Amino acid sequence: MSARDRDWDGVRLHVVTGKGGTGKTTLAAALALALAAGGHKVLLVEVEGRQGIAQLFDQPPLPYGEHEVASAPGGGRVYALAVDAEAALLEYLEMFYGIRRAGQALTRFGAVDFATTIAPGVRDVLLTGKATEAVRRRAGDRRRGARDDPRAPHAYDAVVMDAPPTGRVAQFLNVNAEVAGLARMGPIRNHADKVMETMRSPRTVVHFVTLLEEMPAQETIDGITEIREVGLNVGAVMVNLVRERFFDDAALADALAGTLDTDALAHGLKAARVDRPDEAAHDLAAEITAHARRVRVETAIRERLASVERPRYELPMLGAGGTDRADLDTLAGLLREQGAA
Q1: Is CATH 3.40.50.300 the classification given to domain 3-243+317-335?
Q2: Which residue intervals define the domain ArsA/GET3 Anion-transporting ATPase-like in the entry (predicted)?
């Protein structure tokens, strides 16, 4: 695929969200692998504390830090970071105030948990701030908060954030609104402004993972509206767990109309030496009709998702035994083929 075929040239932060149960974390990991192909270096960031990335890549729970978890075709590498709000706050205190030791004392008294509970916007600034800092960071500069050298290459070619579910993602990403009533000036407000500068730039897009089902699709459409309303850029719609279609339009139309030729089905089953072919033909006709109804619903949902006028990628259901590394590689390859990387 040539560079002009890719949908996200110039994008450096890919935020992935979706309703619970849609496979959001799986597709975030697959996207990271897709972006890393060809010798690139990608950071995959988790902000919900579930250690889902470690499980996908068969790794022990990730400590607070950036650790390589996978290689990609062409010499690419995927690193992972499980952001912890308490550790991020200690790093923040050291960065701006030089009081990491005092911050560690605060954690012993529970002050950090208290502060982020009464001011949840601060927690979101800390979590999103880690991802946006990685986007801006230049190679060779490990000093957090140091001035970037614009001549140096970026430390990562892309950053993928496994974000909170669709119902909360706009609030989570719109950190300026969250801290407006808490800090109108000073380092916290400046930090939030820098986060939002990256979030609202053309370098950042928010991808939505959904299924061909009513509730996830409607939540995706609503989420896209919310993201646009807060001034962020909508990326792709990733339709996950797509099931195969087994019959052509004519057969599906006959099934929906109740005009399937069960005699022909029974004749074919009898020729195949199936026991009780007439009974089996009746059951098979019922299965085909149920399949046709599902296809009709899924077709209508596809049309609704197309109304948002964003790139759409479809990823198949790969099996019921859980996702392994081979599955991730398959999904990454499909994302590349469809233009995601």
Answers
A1: yes
A2: 13-199
Task: Choose between 327 and 194: higher pLDDT.
Answer: 327
DSSP assignment of 113-171, as one string?
A: HHHHHH-HHHHHHHHHHHHHHHHHPBTT--STTPPP-TTSPBS-SEEEEEPPPHHHHHH
In the predicted structure, residue 186 carries a pLDDT above the cut 70: no
Residue 146, pLDDT score = 47
Return the H-helix or E-strand segment holding 309: none
Q: Where are the domains of the chain?
A: 3-243+317-335, 249-293
Structure-token match 């596809």, residue found: 302
Name the DSSP letter for residue 60: P
Contacts of 151 (CB under 8 A, 6+ apart): none
- What integer is the mean pLDDT of 185-206? 83
Judge whether residue 325 has pLDDT over 80. yes
CB 80 within 8 A of CB 62: yes
Q: Which residues, in sequence order, are CB contacts of 222 under 8 Å at separation 6+?
A: 166
Rg (CA), the chain: 24
pTM: 0.88
Q: How far is CA 255 from the centre of its chain?
A: 37
Cα–Cα distance between 127 and 47 in angstroms, integer?
6
The larger pLDDT score, comparing residue 97 to residue 211, is at 211
Residue 79: which of 46, 49, 34, 44 has the closest Cα?
44
Pairwise CA distance, residues 249 & 300, whole Å: 15
